[in-house]
Amino acid sequence: MSQWSQVQQLEIKFLEQVDQFYDDNFPMEIRHLLAQWIESQDWEAASNNEAMATILLQNLLIQVDEQLDRVSQEKNLLLIHNLKRIRKLLQGKYHGNPMHIAVIISNCLREERRILAAASMPVQGPLEKSLQNSVVSERQRNVEHKVSAIKNSAQMTDQDVKYLEDLQEEFDFRYKTIQSLEQSDKNSALIKQEMLALQAMLNTLDYKRKEVLSKIGRVIHEIDMLMSNMLTEELLDWKRRQQIACIGGPLHGGLDQLQNCFTLLAESLFQVRRQLEKLDELLTRLTYDGDPIPVQRPQLLEKVNFLLYNLFRNSFVVERQPCMPTHPQRPMVLKTLIQFTVKLRLLIKLPELNYQIRVKATIDNNRRFVLCGTHVKAMNMDESANGSLSVEFRHLQPKEMKSSAGSKGNEGPHMVTEELHSISFETQVCLYGLTINLETSSLPVVMISNVSQLPNAWASIIWYNLSTNDPQNLSFFNNPPAATLSQLLEVLSWQFSSYVGRGLNSEQLNMLAEKLMGQQVSYNDYQLSWAKFCKEHLPGKSFTFWVWLEAILDLIKKHILPLWIDGYIMGFVSKEKERILLKDKTPGTFLLRFSESNLGGITFTWVDQLENGDVTFHSVEPYNKGRLSALPFADILRDYKVIMADNVPENPLKYLYPDIPKDKAFGKHYSCQPNEVSKPSDGGGKGYVPSVFIPVSKILNDSTDPHSPSDLLPMSPSVYAVLREHLSPTVIETAVCCKLFHS
């Protein structure tokens, strides 16, 4: 089943998450129509290779053309229209930057895998539960309801101001009519009656002026209360959700809803401002003793302006945190002289501001780094699929100043990756006579000068965003706080779900907890230090816990990803637990686990039964990325052979734990079927017999000492069979020179 087919079977709450990251940058129609073709391409590799990305973009457009031909024959007018629009959009947007669409599609596929992984996990962690709190959802609904009510109140007040204006015009006309009469006419009874009517009308005007000012005051008060309480909390919650999403957590939504609220409030405040201006205009035409307008209007206008200032300042946000396109799963880690992207949005979406706001990007004020590239751009509504007022910087590069380069040699790598910086943005809004200066900053970023520093830099980003919701504590690592172990384990599971498409289950997390704490613990409220996580070596090892875990992530990503996604790699299980699981199983049952002593290594252990009925276990030396580059791991499991002393080589691996036939589990991942391997009779190029690598180990029955690891021997299966027929076991033994390693 394709990944897209699995996505379509998700529950609605997960489908809503999928919907959030498909827009005009990569329309969902294309994802749906070209699902299998899209999933068969290596978009991640293309995101770092312009030539490959160019070819993939051309092939994508060809695929769209083929779909256009198909739907044209079916005379599906709506789909024809949409595909033509999408093709034009894709070609126009990415013709000059094909790597950008490769990054977007790679990210979309990765997010799909993360959501599929999250949907398969039975239990939510404490962080995810807190983000999906029902109280928060109720507050969101209340905010939207109150904003709508405020907008209606402001519009109703508009009608009151219009009525007041009409009433005053009538009064003004009738009053001027009387004033134009001769003095003798003014003493008539009819005129005196008219004067009494005008006095009553003036009383009504006074009442209506007070009523309008009172209504305006109530609208202002409601906006003030909403901004001070619920809207501020909503914005802070969104920023916290963004922090969590940046370190692999659930996708954060809600910015469009916040934009709607901010925009409606801004429109309401500007509407109130116009009402106050209208009252000032009415005041110039008519005033009287006890007139409420000159007393109340200045105070109300001052309050409106104050609220507008605050609303605009809070509306300037970093929509997408700084990230290198080459490492989309590692945001906020920036390498010097490498481009990164960052996107900002003004949550107040007013047409008058389109292309009128220029944003300047700078780096923090310590003068150690400067930003190269285009660092001033105008916000607009054309580049975003949803028409938001935003700006995306795509060509910024951090550069270290020469004056500070000499001091860098005195700092160890851990000091570099614990130093936090901030990308700052400033602009100015000029609208309806108001001038408002706006500033915002990214979450803290870590600068690196070498890719080898990236793992420890990413550990710093994880720890910061897990431990605090303070967006600008650049001195955080002067005294980093401890983290709750249960929350840390949840975040570690996110690293696997976001980076390699499948999170960790409770058993795997328990093993990591024991690895961190050195014993079996109840980790719900246990506090873990930063040093224990990233700086102190594991007992008896030359590396830290994080370096060990990061090496496993890299191994999965580059060499065993399909097997991991299928859930066939138990991975995190101790040697002791491994034997408990296997001891009562059928001989030949095996499981796959990550090495605890070798960085980035994976091994397999199987259970066997001796002639006397005793159970024995065998583990091969861990395979690392060097050996897995020579032969896919699934093929190793298929072709693996063991030579028992004086016995015929055989594959001891029969069932994947608990009882899955090996070929059923891994068959679809074999690079070729056994019967497809070339035989000597097949010939081969220039008379040579095609060869394959076969992993072979030897078990010595008279020794319990660990031996040297097995190697991969380059020979075809058919040649190996011929050797077995013509050579004695002793000769094969000498030639193979490989022995099983007991771990």
What does this structure look like?
The protein is an alpha+beta fold and 743 residues long. It has four domains: 1-119, Transcription Factor, Stat-4, CATH 1.10.532; 134-311, Glutathione S-transferase Yfyf (Class Pi), Chain A, domain 2 (Up-down Bundle); 323-400 and 415-467, STAT transcription factor, DNA-binding domain (Immunoglobulin-like); 504-667, SH2 domain (SHC Adaptor Protein), CATH 3.30.505. The protein has 27 helices and 21 strands. The strands form six sheets. A five-stranded mixed sheet has the order 16-15-14-18-19. Helix 6 crosses helix 8 (98-120). The protein is elongated. The protein starts with a helix and ends in a 7-residue tail after the last helix. Mean pLDDT is 83; it is low at 404-415, 675-684, 702-720 and 726-743.
Write the layout of secondary structure elements.
Blueprint: H1 3-8, H2 12-20, H3 28-33, H4 35-39, H5 43-46, H6 50-74, H7 77-94, H8 98-120, H9 126-131, H10 134-179, H11 183-186, H12 189-246, H13 255-285, H14 293-315, E1 316-323, E2 333-335, E3 340-346, E4 358-363, E5 369-372, E6 376-378, E7 389-400, H15 402-408, H16 413-417, E8 420-421, E9 423-431, E10 434-441, E11 445-448, H17 454-467, E12 483-484, H18 485-500, H19 506-517, E13 527-528, H20 530-534, H21 545-565, H22 575-582, E14 589-594, E15 602-609, E16 615-619, H23 625-628, H24 633-639, E17 641-644, E18 655-656, E19 660-661, H25 662-666, E20 693-699, E21 712-714, H26 717-726, H27 729-736
Parallel strand pairs: 2-11, 14-18, 17-20
Antiparallel strand pairs: 1-3, 3-7, 4-6, 4-9, 5-7, 8-11, 9-10, 12-13, 14-15, 15-16, 18-19, 20-21
InterPro entries: p53-like_TF_DNA-bd_sf, SH2, SH2_dom_sf, STAT, STAT4_CC, STAT4_DBD, STAT4_SH2, STAT_linker
Keywords: Acetylation, Activator, ADP-ribosylation, Coiled coil, Cytoplasm, DNA-binding, Isopeptide bond, Methylation, Nucleus, Phosphoprotein, SH2 domain, Transcription, Transcription regulation, Ubl conjugation
Subcellular location: Cytoplasm; Nucleus
